[in-house]
Amino acid sequence: MRYYLGIDIGTFESKGVLVDESGAIAALATRPHKMLVPQPGWAEHDPDQDWWGDFCFLSKKLIADSGIDPKDIKSVGASAIGPCMLPVDAEGNALMNGVLYGVDTRAAKEIEDLNAEIGVERILEVSGNALTSQSVGPKILWLKNNRPEIYEKAAKIVSSTTYLVQKLTGNCVIDHYTAANFSPLYDVGAQRFSDDLTKSILPLEKLPKLLWTTEVAGTVTSAASAATGLDEGTPVICGTIDAAAEAFSVGVLSAGDMMVMYGSTIFIILLSEQRVRDSRLWYAPWFFPGEHASMSGLATSGTLTHWFRDQIGRDLDPATAFGVLAQEAASSKPGANGLVFLPYFSGERTPIHDTHAKGMLFGLNLTHTRGDIYRALIEGIACGTNHIFETYAAAGARPARLIAVGGGTKNQIWLEATSNISGLPQIMTEKSMGASYGNAFLAALGIGDVSRDQIKTWNPVEREVPAVHDPAYDRQYQIFLRLYQQTKDLMAELDAPL
User: Fold this and answer.
1) Which fold has domain 254-431+468-498?
2) Where do the Carbohydrate kinase FGGY N-terminal domain residues begin and end (predicted)?
3) Please, which residues bridge with residue 73 across strands?
């Protein structure tokens, strides 16, 4: 029997899976870690502990738990949260904590400076993306401006998946999908790194080598073999960002397919026949030449449920708290008895791209319960998700099929609110462990053991979440939109220096 290893490093948890050639799961393992928030607007991971440390732990555990001979593991696929920014030295050692994706908003000034220097329209045309907190280029410039000694020492600037693959193989590579998030340093037309827009950010030789996602990046070195338990010489594919691997895991294959990932953040990927040009959305080449993806995401989603449990539900047993809170929310009616929640606890990404946006609970009175508030939180996330759906529609890119995935799909109220507010049904596949499963399939695809369409037999459709109209949501959603518009100046004022 042939096996494939897939490991994914998430914001709060890493997951690993060993899968056989039929798609059956031979072993599954997880490991939690924390997101570091050194100051408001910053989000970091310790790359050696949270990225490589988790990979080594999970790899060894999966091999031990399954009893599989490492020689029978024919290829390895990894993904991680992203895009991230991490400077490394000539040996590939991290020089600081990894700066996370769009939830880290430290480079707001650099975004403003680059927009002024280059021009918003020029950046969008060449790099396919407006500069937002998701963009790596401004974060590299932040490093240059604020940590010049680390910037000068850095041999390469990498993302999270690159770091893992370099630890495994010794080769510093990045897939085109991830590289497109290094705006404005990636030219989407030429599909290469370019300093045509600005030479002030970074010499191009300090960026990883470009590959397509399923290309083999190298093989497991002897040092990596000792650290992971994998057989030396095992092929390792280039890999990608976690959300993209998760999309593939549930069968996002064709133009019109859209994944909605219910994780620490909501992240959405829509495949399209042509490049979608809209400054509110992100663009990247898909895994294969000639294919296109359009992305979007909220800054805080599942993170908010953790915050609520830890702060408002601190009297509850952490092991059972989410179940109790779900029961309380279920006792509240759709519309949360008139409460409206803005989920902008770390600013917001798509579609408003406002680093000053703030969270808000609006409409409280003395009859409201914790269940009402928790339901309002969930429905606020669903309203934010519908705002994204409407943005796709305005850009002429309506989805033909919505596929839901991620840990948040266990929350039935969240799923139903998303479909009922948007009017869009969602389908769910049999297996929903996410990116780690997608990585295992991509690893098998990378060495030619499967074809792309076989993901449909590995992970078939299981059920549909219908869309049921409720007038309470019509009012709630319109107030949600107006509430931000009418308070965004006050939100920015809160961030102004005294």
Assistant:
1) Nucleotidyltransferase; domain 5 (3.30.420)
2) 3-248
3) 3
Please give the average per-residue pLDDT across 11-16, as a whole number. 94
Tell me how far apart the alpha carbons of residues 81 and 33 are, in angstroms, rounded to a whole number: 13
Q: What is the pLDDT of residues 348-386, one digit of tens each?
A: 989 999 989 999 999 999 999 999 999 999 999 999 999
Rounded Cα distance between 481 and 368, Å, is 22
Q: For the domain covering 3-244, report its CATH number.
A: 3.30.420.40
Q: Classify burial at 122, counting beta carbons within 10 Å of its beta carbon; exposed 0-12, middle 13-18, buried 19 or more.
A: middle
CA distances from 19 to 7, 16, 428, 433, 458 (A): 11, 10, 20, 12, 10
**What residues does CATH 3.30.420.40 cover in the chain?**
3-244, 254-431+468-498
Q: Which amino acid is at 12?
A: F
| pLDDT per residue as tens digits for the range 458-473 | 999 999 999 999 999 9
Query: Which residue from 478, 495, 481, 482 is spatially nearest to 347, judged by alpha carbons?
Result: 495
Rg (CA), the chain: 22
pTM of the model: 0.88
The three-state (H, E, C) secondary structure of the chain, written as one string: CCEEEEEEECCCEEEEEEEECCCCEEEEEEEECCCECCCCCCCEECHHHHHHHHHHHHHHHHHHHHCCCHHHEEEEEEEECCCCEEEECCCCCECCCEECCCCCCCCHHHHHHHHHHHCHHHHHHHHCCCCCCCCHHHHHHHHHHHCHHHHHHCCEEECHHHHHHHHHHCCCEEEHHHHCCCCCCEECCCCEECCCCCCCCCCHHHCCEEECCCCEEEECCHHHHHHHCCCCCCEEECCEEHHHHHHHHCCCCCCCEEEEEECCCEEEEEEECCCCCCCCCEEEECCCCCCEEEEEECCCCHHHHHHHHHHCCCCCCCCCHHHHHHHHHHCCCCCHHHCEEECCECEECCCCCECCCCCEEECCCCCCCHHHHHHHHHHHHHHHHHHHHHHHHHCCCCCCEEEEECHHHHCHHHHHHHHHHHCCCEEEECCCCCHHHHHHHHHHHHCCCCCHHHHHHHCCEEEEECCCCCHHHHHHHHHHHHHHHHHHHHHHHHHCCC
Question: Average pLDDT for residues 278-286, to the nearest whole number?
Answer: 93
Per-residue pLDDT of 379-411, as tens digits, reads 999 999 999 999 999 999 999 999 999 889 999
